[in-house]
Structure to design on (353 residues):
């Protein structure tokens, strides 16, 4: 006779009882589990003639991910999914593959992750707990501009506020969605694509571009929204990935030194640069990247001794992988003086806090 199985699953967080029945296979994969939770399960077997027989209760626990320091994005079912990972590469999906979520940014003061999500054909700013729970929609005026995958926002250091671009405007908003305030608008109608708020909230780094992603400018504004310094302008090609150091002495960014421009935003030689405010000097730290590849989306490590970034072929279609490397050359090592290392494969948009 055919044996069918039924599984009953409970957990230590609530009174939910999940039943999976009419199973003919002796194995079953349980999905959509909550991190840091103990689950209890038992199985019954039935031949539809005799009374069903239940097994003893067994249990397992899911791992706690709130201390994972790495965040990144992978594509699943044609949607962007946000993952967190520890140093060993043990990763956990924080968002569903049924809806596209990307650009994670963690705030240590609140232990919250802000991110972008598709919402009724718009891009809105959301927050969630470090384990992916308590998802909250922050914005009603969309995060918008050139190419949604190129847009970025920034937390205030204390986690009370966020800033984000909307075409030629930069808005400030409280994390609960209140207090929306315009803090800067470009004078020439250029789109603001990226912003980074300094740790002391005294300055903001901004990257602007035209509707095609070019005619880029990277500059600094003060707390009143006034432009006080220009870092990059008047060049051909793409740029981005802006990140201020905690002491406001260094700006990390990427720039395609080939100067190539095309309708599909292809980049040929995107490299990572460190700009030193004290000396007004720029250092190329991508000297050890493989020719024919791009270094993209850089962020400082928590110690700021390293950077994390994406490297991929400049063909625009190859797999993207996440790397780390030193900010300053280690001249005591042979060959790989920046200690470039592959960290995560087939992943984009890293954050390391």
């Amino acid at each position: 006779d055919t044996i069918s199985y039924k599984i009953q699953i409970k957990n230590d967080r609530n009174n939910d009882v999940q039943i999976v029945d009419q199973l003919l296979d002796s194995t079953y994969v349980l999905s959509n589990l909550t991190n840091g939770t103990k689950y209890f399960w038992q199985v019954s077997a039935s031949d539809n003639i005799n009374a069903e027989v239940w097994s003893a209760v067994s249990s397992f626990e899911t791992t706690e991910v709130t201390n994972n320091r790495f965040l990144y994005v992978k594509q699943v079912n044609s949607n962007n999914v946000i993952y967190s990972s520890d140093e060993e590469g043990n990763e956990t999906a924080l968002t569903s593959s049924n809806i596209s979520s990307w650009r994670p940014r963690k705030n240590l003061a609140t232990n919250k992750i802000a991110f972008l999500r598709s919402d009724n054909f718009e891009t809105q700013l959301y927050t969630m707990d470090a384990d992916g729970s308590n998802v909250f929609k922050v914005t009603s005026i969309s995060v918008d501009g050139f190419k949604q995958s190129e847009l970025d926002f920034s937390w205030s250091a204390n986690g009370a506020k966020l800033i984000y671009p909307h075409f030629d405007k930069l808005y400030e908003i409280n994390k609960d969605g209140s207090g929306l305030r315009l803090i800067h608008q470009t004078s020439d109608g250029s789109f603001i694509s990226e912003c980074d708020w300094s740790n002391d909230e005294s300055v903001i780094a901004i990257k602007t571009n035209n509707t095609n992603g070019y005619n880029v400018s990277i500059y600094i504004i003060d707390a009143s929204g006034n432009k006080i310094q220009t870092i990059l302008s008047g060049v051909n090609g793409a740029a981005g990935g802006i990140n201020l150091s905690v002491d406001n002495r260094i700006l990390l960014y990427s720039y395609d030194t080939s100067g190539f421009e095309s309708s599909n935003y292809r980049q040929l030689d995107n490299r990572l640069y460190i700009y030193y405010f004290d000396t007004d000097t720029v250092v190329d730290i991508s000297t050890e990247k493989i020719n024919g590849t791009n270094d993209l989306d850089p962020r400082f490590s928590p110690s700021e001794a390293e950077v994390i970034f994406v490297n991929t072929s400049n063909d625009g279609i190859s797999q993207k992988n996440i790397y780390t490397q030193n900010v300053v050359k280690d001249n005591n090592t042979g060959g790989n003086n920046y200690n470039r290392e592959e960290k995560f494969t087939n992943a984009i948009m890293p954050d390391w806090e």
